[in-house]
Input
Amino acid sequence: MAKQAAGKMLKVTLDKSVICCNKSQKATVQGMGLRRIRHSIELPDTPETRGMILKVRHLVTVQE
Output
């Protein structure tokens, strides 16, 4: 846990609605912890997080 806290963090913001998306994209957004449009969270910069962001890249913006 200490390694993740000391590492890089990514700020992810949901910009578009998930209404038009398929079930797996909705589940990915929910799994990331995003709840509503313009909701932002900070996630650790890991390959798993990058993969989730890549899957829903048309819905979110990322700041490093």
